[in-house]
Amino acid sequence: MKRLLACALISLGFPLAAHAALDIGDKAPDFTAEAALAGSVYRYSLAESLKKGPVVLYFFPAAYSEGCSVEAHYFADAVAQFNALGASVVGVSGDDIETLSKFSVQACQNSFTVASDQNQAVMKSFDAVMQTRPEYANRISYVIAPNGSVVYHYMSLNPTKHVEKTLAAVRTWIESKK
Q1: Angle of helix 66-84 versus helix 162-177 axis, rounded to 10
Q2: b or e along 132-142 (b: 16 or more beta carbons within 10 Å of the residue's beta carbon)?
Q3: Would you call 22 exposed, middle or buried from its count of C-beta atoms within 10 A (0-12, 13-18, 19+)?
């Protein structure tokens, strides 16, 4: 009976489980990657960013796709709020650095860094490869404390809630430290 139910769910396209590989309290894998901020290309380091405060790391499928552009605009609009809390934002996708350099100016409005992960090493280490389209990153956001531990994660292909949820998580983390 269990096998029949599992087969029925799979055939209907329902995932049996959808969990981020990194759970609350897990150590976030360190990485460096080619990145762009306001059109300027540089080497981004998660470890260096964590020395300055918490990091909101969000993965997105593809620059200039409708949902990814919407999400980038939302993050750009909220960067001042993240910065006021001592947090920084970095987006990661499998796009090449030339595309992300332009995206950092246009969709990201020169407000935050986007990093290129063409070989998907960062995506794989954060379990952020899209199951149904493995050539793309899944839409998942992490909040990482300065000590490198994951304090929050949120996964949804809907781009409209990631900023709200991660901003609330940063605030909650700060409150827990007081």
Answers
A1: 20
A2: eeeebbbbbbb
A3: buried
Q: Which of 92, 96, 106 is nearest to 49 (CA)?
A: 92
For residues 141-164, give the mean pLDDT: 96
The pLDDT confidence band at residue 177, using thresholds 50, 70 and 90, is confident
Whether the predicted pLDDT of 47 surpasses 70: yes
pTM above 0.85, yes or no: yes
> Of 29, 35, 11, 7, whose CA–CA distance to 108 is shortest?
35
**Residue 116 in this model has a pLDDT that exceeds 60:** yes
The predicted-structure confidence for 62-107, as pLDDT tens digits, reads as follows 999 999 999 999 999 999 999 999 999 999 999 999 999 999 999 9
Set out the domains of the chain in order of their start, with CATH numbers. Answer: 20-177 (3.40.30.10)
